[in-house]
Amino acid sequence: MFDAHVHMGYFPRWDKVEPYYYSPRRIFGALTRAGVDEFIVSSTNAIWDVEGAAMHAEAREMKRLAGQRAHIFFWVSMRYLARDPDLSHLPEGLYEGFKLHGGESPWLQEPELLSRVLSLAKERSFPVQIHTGMNDRGISNTIGEYLPYCRRFPELHVDLAHGKPHEEVPALLAELPNVYIDTAFVPHHIVENWLDAGADERRIIFGSDLPAPQRFSKTGLSAYVRREAAHFSSQNILSHNAGRFLQRTPDGYWAKFKETSRLSGYQI
User: Fold this and answer.
1) Which one, 29, 152, 189, 199, has least CB within 10 Å?
2) How confident is the model at residue 258 (pLDDT cuts 50, 70, 90)?
């Protein structure tokens, strides 16, 4: 199983006044107990870590714990970008993609900066995960608002996380072969509606948004992932599609992915 939407770092929690720290060890342990073989993870510490030092340290620790199972995306904030405009200070080989969140940085209000980050992702053949939906400040970030950027960068694999608004997803996937949608906080019957409407199953990827479920209720992280995964029988959604998303050239990725899976005992 491949969880394509995971976080580490400080995050709100239902029983805490202040944000709670979810360490790489805690997140990796929860994913392992849930039966997750590989995952895409980013750090929420971008909210305050202007220099990136904490995020780099977390990324290194996650790689130490999880090795090739962890695919780490660097959460790009506008404050970080102001210090490192071409993102040249990122540690070589540590990150495999970028994460953008319109609640943390108002990307849609700064189209030149958003285009710059996407251009840098294209240069590095990095996929990008972009949050969609209403954020805590009541600012909307919809898949429709990001469509012009997805059209402008057809070589770039983009996961419009959460797929908000849901009713627009089938048409979006039909138009743009470079766009993916993850299932984080998407009710499973909505995914079924997408498939019934003819949505391309190969571009829907399983995601849990761990540890976000603990923001809203007292729930075990591993149990939550297992419950969400149980709604899906498609190995494309549960595993294979994330491989296509990660690599611009899927054939090259699958050779590597199959070898990694063989060594870990995972069956494709």
Assistant:
1) 189
2) very low
Which residue intervals of 47-110 are DSSP H helices?
53-66, 78-83
Query: pLDDT, tens digit, for every residue of 182-222?
Result: 999 999 999 999 999 999 999 999 999 999 999 999 999 99
Q: Band of the pLDDT at 136, cuts 50, 70, 90?
A: low
Q: What is the dihedral angle through the alpha carbons of 195, 31, 125, 159, rounded to the nearest 10 degrees?
A: 30
Cis peptide before 211 (omega within 30 of 0): yes
Closest CA to 97 of 40, 146, 143: 40
Cβ atoms within 10 Å of 21's Cβ, excluding its own? 14
- Of 151, 129, 130, 145, residue with least CA distance to 39: 129
CB-CB contact of 46 with 82 (8 Å): no
- The model carries a pTM of 0.91
Domain boundaries along the sequence of the chain? 2-264
Which one is the CATH code of 2-264: 3.20.20.140, 4.10.520.10, 3.40.710.10, 3.30.750.24?
A: 3.20.20.140
* Structure-token pair, residue 169: 């997803």
